Amino acid sequence: MLKVGELASRTGLTVRTLHHYDEVGLLRPAERTAAGHRLYGADEIRRLQQITSLRHLGLSLEEVAECLARPEYGVARVLRMQRDRIREQIGRQETLLATITHLIERLGSDEAPDVEEVTEVIRMTMEYEKYYSSEQLTQLRERAESVGEARMQESQREWQRLLAAFTRAMEDGLDPTAPEVRMLCTSYEALIAEFTGGDPNMLASLTEMYRSEGGDHVMERHGMSTAPGLWEYIGRARAPAHP
Q1: The domain defined by 2-73 carries CATH number 3.40.50.720
Q2: Cα–Cα–Cα angle for 92, 139, 17, nearest 5°?
């Protein structure tokens, strides 16, 4: 059993937030001490995980309460929902990086970028500000500088090769859970980890942006067209073997 202060310290939530969840009936403590201190057990902590995951998905407290009142919203399903949202954000960040990289290449050549290309970067940058904090945008710039131009371009080529391999697997009729497709997922996850630096908050912002914009649209802005159904296929391939 954890006191409210201990639970707040371990989860990164504030005591005030936990008190509020209790007041609105969203997360009641398992019991109270003789002095009236709230105590939380394993069941309450699992429920708190569901609450934080659903909040991360953008649900209001009222919507969270409605979901938790439904038996189908168990811990595993809520975690899968959060996982899928995070994955979806990844592609959006990749798109802006690739577009900026392409613009840099054009600026360094004899062929100057046209107005349409420059305005596209502006538009995408403004879109990113809807999903990323100023600290995260600074982090992205610093990471791009630390990685270096050569690695950024090679990473872009790796993404293109990887998507082409997924497309061939899909067109060949391979089951997305086949071992060879799962191996492609390993490379997919490695590129994502390299791109985000393993930062879970960056990954969450990326997933949200990707979910809102759509994978096909992201790739179109990235200068790549994808086969119909490819993103669904990749999503199934990346899903746990035993959901």
Answers
A1: no
A2: 85
